[in-house]
Structure formats: C-alpha cells, structure tokens
Amino acid sequence: MATQLNTAPARTGGNPFLKVVNSVSTVAGWFAAAMIVASVFITCQMIFVRFVLNGSTVWQTEAVIYLMVASTLIGLPYVQRMRGHVNVDLIPLALPMKARYWMAILTLGLSIAIVTTLFWYGFEFWHFAFERNWKSETVWAVRLWIPYLAIPVGFGLLLLQLVADFVALVTGVDKPFGLEAK
Hints:
Blueprint: H1 16-52, H2 60-74, H3 76-81, H4 90-94, H5 97-131, H6 145-148, H7 150-170
C-alpha cells in the first residue's frame, strides 16, 4: 500500500479562531527562521574574529546555542501548522473514515495533554530561573530566564496550534490526518 505525502497546511475554513492561530503560528515560524539566520551570521563573525583577527570570542558560542534551541522551540507551531513533522499514515489510510476520525481525536488529545504538561513544567522552570536570577557560568553571564523563556513560549504556541487542529477536526474544517475519504 502506497502512502501519500501530506504537506497541506492546516485549514481555517473561515473560522476566526483558526485564522488567528494560523497567523500566530506563521509569525512564530518567521521568528524561528530569523533566529537561525542570526545564528549563521554570528557564527561567521565568530570565525572571522577567531581565525582572521586571531582574537578571542566571549558571547558568540553561547548566543548561537541559545538561538538554535529557541528557534527549534518557537518554530514548533509553524511546523505543526504546515504538517511538516514526519508522518507515517499507513494505519490511518487502512482505516475506514469513522475509525480514522476517532484515531485523530485520540492522537490530538494525547498530544494536547503531553504538550500541556511540557508547557506547565517549562513555565515553572522559566519562572524558577527568573525568581532566583540565575545566570550562566560564563564570562557573558546571561540571565538564564531570557533563553529559558523559549520553553514556555514554544510549547504554549504549539499547544495553541494543536487546540486549533482539534477544533478544525471536530468542526469538520479539516479531515482526520488531512486525508480524504477513500
């Protein structure tokens, strides 16, 4: 049985909530892309300083690490909106439409529960670092609440996109797993 590549972005069907979430996820994707571009430029600057000017670098490595992690987390909702995650749809394709629908409800429900947990504990971790004024143990001494903020923001935005996907599925705006009936 052949599988199809499902690359259609999440549908909004004119629903204002779904349109807003769609826009927020797109903006998050642009921010994530900008952080990756910034990381590339900072890496090039670091290479120039170290190997051409024979100077030392203080902040560049740490900044690139934080930017890459933040871009991954903040880019999550955009990837979910675009259905860019690895998807094996062999089982949903084999199921009748009604079973496919309930499987999609189950998987979205479990995903929402897991991401809610990650959001909650990520927020607690960020808040703990903020309250205690944690700083990195480097010369740069970054206030760690700043890079850690990407954890609750990223998972919060992913949670919002998953809820929108759930609403789209329940209201019939989107099909289970984006697959049409056989």
